[in-house]
Amino acid sequence: MSKSPEAASIRAASPADFLRLFYPFHYQVGSTVERALRGEQLSQHQTVILWIIHSEGDEGLTMRRKDIEARIGNWFDITSSAISKALRSLARADMPYLSIAEDPRSGREKLVTMTAEGQRQIRQMIARSEAFIGRIVEKLSDEEIRSGLQFMRRVSEIVPGLDRASE
After folding, report:
1. What is the pLDDT of residue 7?
2. Whole-Å CA distances, 107 to 51, 53, 103, 153
3. Which of 33, 90, 133, 155 keeps 20 to 30 A from 81, CA to CA?
4. CA-to-CA distance for 59 and 96, rounded, in angstroms?
5. pLDDT tier at 165 (50, 70, 90 boundaries)?
6. Which element (helix H / strand E) includes 64?
7. For residues 78 and 40, is the Cβ–Cβ distance under 8 A?
8. Whole-angstrom Cα distance, residue 95 to residue 89?
9. Rounded distance, CA 84 to CA 140, Å?
10. For the CA atoms of the chain, what is the radius of gyration?
11. Which helix (H) or strand (E) holds 111?
């Protein structure tokens, strides 16, 4: 069964429509949600480091420094020394969110572990962001919420495969 002319027209126009929405969604919405996640204390790089460990680390707590560097490099054009600086700042007495130790598997590698205070910070980051996103959701219908979540899940499944295919 073929698609209707209207459906075909919508499909043909959708790449341009998605591209027009990319800037406001990625930069305006994304930056605003990121500010909620970051709060008053953390820098952008510190926030991303904590989030990477929380999302991709062993049990959400531990990750090798080189793996953090590889992941953050996918998000930012950042030097290794800037990553080291951000990691050290998250292990200071005034911000004791990480501990950095020698990796027992390699003396040249560092193992970064989220402390109990870091885990508390992650919970606060999540609570701030959920509260902000809740303000957005209040303005959406149930169908918009369902459709939006379904769309975001599906795109999140598709994009990593496309990114690898372009290499």
Report:
1. 78
2. 26, 21, 6, 40
3. 33
4. 19
5. low
6. strand 62-64
7. no
8. 7
9. 41
10. 20
11. strand 106-114
Distance, CA of 86 to CA of 143 (rounded, Å): 41
Residue 99: count other Cβ atoms within 10 Å of its Cβ: 14
Q: What strands lie across the sheet with 106-114, from one edge to the other?
A: 62-64, 106-114, 98-103
The full set of domain ranges for the chain reads: 34-139
Q: Provide the residue count of the chain.
A: 167
**Residue type at 127 in one-letter notation:** A
Query: Which pLDDT score, from 0 to 100, does residue 161 have?
Result: 82
Which H/E stretch holds residue 98?
strand 98-103
Q: What is the CATH number of domain 34-139?
A: 1.10.10.10
Residue 100 dihedral angles phi and psi, to the nearest 5°:
-125, 125
Tokens of 45: 């790089």
Supply the pTM of this predicted model: 0.82
Q: How far apart are CA 4 and CA 87, in angstroms?
A: 54
